[in-house]
């Protein structure tokens, strides 16, 4: 009865409210209290939150809580000190964030949070937005000039030292509906009644100064992830004895303020796709040639690079151990490194796509022929492609290659190069921002780079001339486009046939955030604690390593139980990969591959189990002795993050209504008491 009365009273009140019709998503009156609440309160369930991260030097990201803060368009905000939540158009985001973190900015006094609204399809975006530094990871550069502006658009928002207030990037669908609410506030002159917001990104590590403190107090976990590595050919016995190895690197994802929208399409995924497609094409070319290559190729798809080059620094540390190897390629065997950097925005020059080889000093002096090999390979690429050396730069650009060059590590460097689509400055205007998505990449540029890379790697591995190259251009083109659809779109996304054949994923959008490491697993090679993305990359390298003319022939390979079970692969040179088949029985097949997972977090992190059986992460060292950045993510309270918007009459109105209600309640009790007294008196007279 009370619920029905409440519903009736609320409906009558809302019917008199001029804003109720604006908030109705369905025709007719609400049918239940829950339906009524859903119409009153708008919760942004698909918005991406900026959350609190910590590193060895301080905090980064966002945390905080605000309640009933009025909504204002950023363009209309006059810098007053009363609490507000600003609504920011995409094209205003760089200006807003730059002002927000500026020392002494008036925004810091009144702004309690912000909601970013988007239009979709890359429309309404600023000319540039890069939260990254002007020299990303410059502290790891192997040369003295650490002020060089590789990224001229950098705003340096990822390592601010202190967190920002709650920030949310709404989805395109949410943005369209939300605009009507903000327009209501604007049309009403930003006076009550108006829409207000409750935002929270509270985190448990908010009081800790850095990763050392939060790990010690168990209020955070290390950001981890894995690297996937594999060699061509898969067995050392299949190559000429005593020959060296070439290490081929590509990054998997980068950092971002809004991790749920993290793509890094141009920054890293363009190079990842080019390298993975080249891996498949070279494997098939080696197989079809029938000759053992003179050099082995070790491919490393490096995870967690957006967090202080954690993946490559861990790999470089592992390779210092003489007994450690990548499928038989140890540190002493690696003679050269080829890194595939951003290659999705190659500019046309004289009708040719232009790529650049940024080489280490040792590479130019001792391996000048490598540049000649790439130059020769470019001449055979379908469509005009040219390769040049950059001019006027202090050295190699921000890259994983820097982890193998820093003399502070072991005093030795491995010569190498970084293949990019830029000369003196990074061409990506949206580096380390959620705007670096599929609209920021030219797939034809990725294909040309992959074709160039395939030819050059084949020549390096076989010591052959350009005339003997047997790269399947159709296969390369098909893989580049298919993998781009899988990794850079939501439809089909990870539901694409390429992924579903070798990795069981229920996700649509690929997540490039490496996630956190809860505990130290006993078996690094188990797929159970890996992300869907890394399981797919592992399966791709494994199923392509033999260079089969038709990958579907794997269906006829010996069966095994994936990821674990009684049926194992008989040969030590084989691994069990997932293979989707219409046949009943085991869901795995045995293939010849040397693929492996490699932890992509700092070797300074140590997991220790206490006497009571509980474990915790710690750091072996201090802030003065540890050069790794060691990024961590704070634990979240149960109700965080959360973003709600609803119509409010204002504090004064609510106070008046409270006291009016209180007065009515007291009057009702007084009237009832008087009535009872009168009734008792009348009853006694009877």
Instruction: Note the gap between the termini.
Output: 35 Å
Strand content: 15-25%
Shape: elongated
Q: Which whole number gives the mean pLDDT?
A: 88
Give your account of this protein's structure.
It is a single-pass type I membrane protein. Keywords: Glycoprotein, Membrane, Notch signaling pathway, Signal, Transmembrane, Transmembrane helix. Its main location: membrane. This protein is an alpha+beta fold. The chain has 4 domains: 35 residues, no CATH class; 181 residues, no CATH class; 302 residues, Aminopeptidase, CATH 3.40.630; 37 residues. The protein has 17 helices and 28 strands. Strands 11, 12, 13, 16, 17, 18, 19, 20 and 24 form a 9-stranded mixed sheet that branches. An 8-stranded mixed sheet has the order 1-28-9-5-6-7-8-2.
Please tag this protein with its features.
about 675 residues; alpha+beta; Aminopeptidase; 4 domains; disordered N terminus
């Amino acid at each position: 009865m009370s619920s029905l009365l409440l519903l009736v009273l609320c409906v009558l009140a809302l019917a008199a409210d001029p804003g109720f019709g604006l908030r109705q998503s369905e025709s007719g009156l609400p049918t239940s209290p829950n339906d009524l609440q859903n119409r009153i309160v708008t919760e942004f369930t698909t918005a991406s939150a900026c959350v609190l991260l910590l590193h060895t030097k301080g905090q980064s990201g966002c945390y905080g809580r605000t309640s009933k803060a009025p909504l204002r368009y950023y363009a209309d905000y006059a810098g007053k000190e009363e609490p507000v939540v600003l609504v920011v158009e995409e094209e205003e985001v760089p200006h807003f964030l730059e002002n927000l973190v500026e020392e002494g900015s008036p925004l810091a006094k009144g702004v309690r949070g912000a909601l970013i609204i988007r239009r979709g399809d890359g429309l309404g975006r600023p000319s540039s937005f890069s939260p990254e530094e002007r020299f990303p990871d410059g502290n790891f550069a192997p040369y003295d000039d650490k002020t060089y502006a590789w990224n001229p658009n950098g705003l340096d928002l990822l390592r601010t030292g202190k967190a920002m207030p709650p920030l949310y990037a709404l989805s395109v669908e949410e943005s369209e509906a939300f605009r009507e609410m903000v327009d209501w506030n604007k049309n009403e002159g930003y006076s009550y009644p108006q829409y207000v917001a409750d935002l929270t990104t509270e985190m448990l590590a908010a009081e800790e100064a850095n990763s050392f403190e939060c790990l010690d107090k168990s209020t955070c976990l290390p950001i981890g992830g894995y690297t996937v590595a594999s060699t061509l050919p898969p067995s050392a016995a299949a190559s000429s004895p005593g020959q060296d190895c070439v290490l081929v690197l590509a990054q998997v994802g980068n950092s971002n303020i809004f991790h749920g929208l993290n793509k890094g399409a141009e920054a890293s995924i363009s190079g990842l796709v080019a390298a993975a497609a080249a891996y498949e094409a070279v494997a098939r070319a080696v197989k079809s040639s029938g000759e053992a290559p003179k050099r082995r190729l070790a491919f490393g798809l490096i995870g967690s690079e957006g967090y202080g080059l954690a993946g490559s620094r861990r790999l470089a540390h592992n390779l210092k151990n003489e007994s450690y190897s990548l499928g038989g390629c140890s540190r002493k065997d690696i003679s050269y490194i080829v890194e595939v950097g951003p290659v999705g925005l190659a500019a046309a020059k004289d009708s040719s796509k232009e790529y650049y080889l940024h080489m280490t000093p040792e590479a130019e002096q001792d391996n000048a022929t490598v540049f000649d090999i790439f130059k020769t390979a470019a001449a055979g690429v379908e469509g005009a492609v040219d390769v040049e050396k950059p001019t006027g730069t202090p050295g190699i650009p921000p890259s994983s290659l820097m982890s193998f060059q820093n003399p502070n590590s072991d005093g030795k460097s491995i010569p190498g190069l970084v293949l990019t689509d830029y000369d003196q400055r990074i061409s990506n205007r949206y580096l380390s921002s959620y705007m670096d998505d599929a609209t920021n990449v030219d797939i034809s540029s990725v294909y040309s780079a992959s074709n160039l890379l395939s030819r050059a790697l084949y020549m390096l591995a076989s010591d052959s001339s350009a005339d003997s190259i047997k790269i399947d251009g159709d296969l390369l083109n098909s893989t580049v486009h298919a993998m781009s659809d899988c990794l850079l779109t939501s439809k089909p996304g990870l539901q694409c046939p390429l992924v579903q054949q070798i990795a069981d994923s229920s996700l649509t959008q690929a997540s490039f955030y490496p996630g956190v490491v809860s505990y130290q697993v006993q078996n690094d090679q188990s797929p159970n604690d890996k992300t869907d993305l890394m399981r797919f990359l592992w399966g791709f390298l494994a199923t392509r390593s033999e260079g089969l003319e038709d990958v579907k022939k794997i269906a006829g390979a010996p069966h095994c139980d994936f990821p674990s079970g009684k049926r194992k692969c008989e040969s030590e040179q084989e691994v069990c990969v997932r293979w989707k088949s219409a046949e009943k029985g085991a869901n795995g097949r045995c293939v010849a591959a040397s693929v492996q997972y490699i932890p992509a977090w700092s070797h300074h992190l140590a997991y220790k189990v206490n006497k009571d059986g509980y474990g915790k992460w710690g750091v072996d060292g201090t802030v003065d002795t540890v050069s790794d950045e060691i990024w961590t993510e704070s634990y979240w309270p149960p109700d965080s993050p959360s973003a709600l918007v609803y119509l409010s009459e204002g504090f004064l109105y609510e106070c008046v209504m409270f006291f009016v209600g209180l007065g009515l309640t007291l009057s009702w009790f007084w009237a009832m008491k008087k009535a009872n007294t009168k009734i008792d008196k009348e009853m006694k007279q009877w």
